[in-house]
Prior knowledge:
Mean pLDDT: 83
CATH topology: Rossmann fold
Distance between the termini: 29 Å
Largest sheet: 2 strands, parallel
Number of strands: 4
CATH architecture: 3-Layer(aba) Sandwich
Number of domains: 1
Structural class: alpha+beta
Strand content: 15-25%
Oligomer: single chain
CATH superfamily: Flavodoxin domain
Order of helices and strands: HHEHEEE
Amino acid sequence: MFRDLSAHPPPLVDAGFSAAILGPPVRCRLPWRRPRALIRELEAADLLVIATPMHNYCVPAVLKAWVDQIVRIHRTFASTPGGKVGKLRDRRRGLVVASGGWFSGPSPTGTPAQRIF
């Protein structure tokens, strides 16, 4: 499965969505349809690769919206006395980030290289 978030962006979280996910599941059927499909898609994946640009030191809004849709208490994580615990199975994963700047040495103008973590 390949998902292009720029071609098919998930909805951004708004006040109505926030109210719906805080309410009882029976009351919020409509706002849960899309996240359920995205969660099932993630559960079915044997490999997860996220390729994203970096905008102003942060991920793009569509990637944040995708994360907002799949992070669900009692569904994809549990809150325990010891902290949050993921409920999805582990899988191979990779992250590819594109950003401006020099990584291997100073830029031609002398700006120091960015650190690679």
